[in-house]
């Protein structure tokens, strides 16, 4: 899962990037409200963690601009101003959730997961396509009741595809979501990994289809 963090307190942001990274999240950080939409144009995110007290463009203004543009990205607000009026105004403006500082990382992770599940119309952490399933809690793939053994990079690519099942992802989408910190991974490597995964999916009732000009999409096999 890839997250965008908009937070101007560098110590807090550093801690969040490290803590969420240890839980398997990829976090991009911006410290100025004016940079939020620029980051969103460059990358695809699963959720936005938005501080209200941002320089350049305040969090309230960022939130209102995104919702005015009909951006449906899940947004959780972080703020030290924990008042009823603050909660009401941000939720009314289109925020999906509100977390007051200080907070525990476990609560933030739980809220993020709930928001992303809700935005995808999912009630559990289980993703499925054909006979292939993925449990986000245990981080395991299965074909039927049998485990599907994958290398770490194959696992990361297939996880990204099944979490976006039915939605085509370009090589750049996959690189950005999975390998943003690995400078040695190039678009050609995605082709190799997809080729290997296709072999492992033979007989699984699931296939990776290449859609010309759009990217790769995970579908149930006919």
TrEMBL record:
Source domain of life: Bacteria
Pfam families: Response_reg, Trans_reg_C
Residue ranges of DNA binding: 124-220
Protein name, per record: Response regulator
Post-translational modification 4-aspartylphosphate, affected residues: 51
OmpR/PhoB-type domain span: 124-220
Protein species of origin: Aquincola tertiaricarbonis
SMART domains reported for this sequence: REC, Trans_reg_C
Domain Response regulatory, residue spans: 2-116
Annotated keywords: DNA-binding, Phosphoprotein, Transcription, Transcription regulation
